[in-house]
Amino acid sequence: MATGKTPGELGLYGFRHRKPGSYGDIYIANSRLLREEPLWVRLGREGVWSIVVGVPPSYPPKPIRGYLISDFITPDPSKPYTWPPQLKREIEDAIGPYIFDVLYRSEEKDRIVKELWEMTEQHFRVLNYLVKNKKWDFLWFVEIGVDRVHHAFWKYWDREHPKYTPGNKYENVIPDYYRFIDKKIGELLENIPKDTLVFIVSDHGVKAMKGAFTMNQWLIEKGYLKLKRKPEKPGTDLKPDIVDWEHTIAWAWGGYYSRVFINVKGREPKGIVPLEKVPEVINELKEELMKIKGPSGEQWVNLVYTPEELYPTVKGDPPDMLVYFDNLSWRAAGTLGWPDLYLEENDKGPDDAVHDWYGIFTIYDPEGTEDVGDMGLININEVASKIYRLIKES
């Protein structure tokens, strides 16, 4: 969204990535891995001052022409999280230690509600402080609370959710939060120039999570993955030391989509699949994955791709395959030891929602003079030029 580049061009396929040649080592996407320029850097070269708050991945903070507060992957407020560095002290003197996220995969629903409201309230206090006290032409911020309220409370609100109970205690948490954040946005708009062009966008949609499919257990059943010993308990992570790599063809990660890795000879430490056989293995796996149905035999819409099929350019450390179950309604579980291939819950803690394909893209032009309503496939360079021209004209 901020660079106009695909995941393939960015070399970023999620927050976690596998280190090349490793079975268990991972790295987390961060600002240092972002090789493409985000919009505010391009604007900065033209002399435009920006405020950027909470946009992932912006930790650790990089220099910009303006002011930056990093995102929810920031470990904790003891770390440097602002640009310029002294902004951290200024923010904390005015508002207190910055809250980056809430623990939302939990049954402590009352605590989550309290912390969501506190975090969001603080974020908007910071935004209002910045727009009133700092020089700026362009502002971009992400409120992570919108995502977290969906994951924590979707089944209490969505009447189509398989676990929805009418009249439950938390039925109005999501609409109440939307009213709350709507009010906060309104207050922020009161503090910015009246001719400001406003974009409200999301990086994904949301819908009910019907359950989780235990991807690695399925690979074991099909003979692609071999273990040295049985898992000790349900929810056991797939650690490298329990896998019989000399007889393993493929293994997978869980998530909103599953990432599948082929145990390639010469690439992995104990790889067994010759490089020339990889396309054959992938096609075989594709056919099998497309056949997977739901727990009652219902037809699923499963999508299986190689990164090259999705993205014309593939950089970084991509998985060999990307698997989406039942049009994203079922999450992929990577853990082991479960009595069934189908779980009613996320294997990593309570979670009521999954990401959906389409989010929102809304533009409000208070003066109604700029024709930005039908951009089609958005070119970030054109957007940067248009914003710069608007700022210069005003």
Average pLDDT confidence is: 93
The number of helices is: 10
**What is the 3D form?**
globular
Major sheet strand order: 5-4-3-6
Reported for the largest beta sheet, the result is: 4 strands, mixed
- Measure the end-to-end span: 25 Å
Roughly what fraction of the amino acids lie in strands?
15-25%
Strands, count: 17
N-to-C SSE string, H for helix and E for strand: HEEHEEEHHEHHEEEHEEHEHEEEEEH
What is the helix content?
25-40%
State the secondary-structure class.
alpha+beta
- Nearest-angstrom radius of gyration? 23 Å
Unreliable stretches (pLDDT < 50, length at least 5) are none
Compact overview of the structure:
With 394 residues, the chain is of the alpha+beta class. Helices cover 29% and strands 16% of the residues. Strands 5-4-3-6 form a 4-stranded mixed β-sheet, with helices on both faces. It has a 4-stranded antiparallel β-sheet with strand order 10-11-13-12.
Structural write-up:
The protein has 394 residues and is an alpha+beta fold. The chain is 29% helix and 16% strand. The strands form 6 sheets. It has a 4-stranded mixed β-sheet, sandwiched between helices. A 4-stranded antiparallel β-sheet has the order 10-11-13-12. Strand 1 and strand 2 (26-28) form a beta hairpin. Helix 5 runs antiparallel to helix 6. The longest helix is centred in the first third of the chain and has 25 residues, at 109-133.
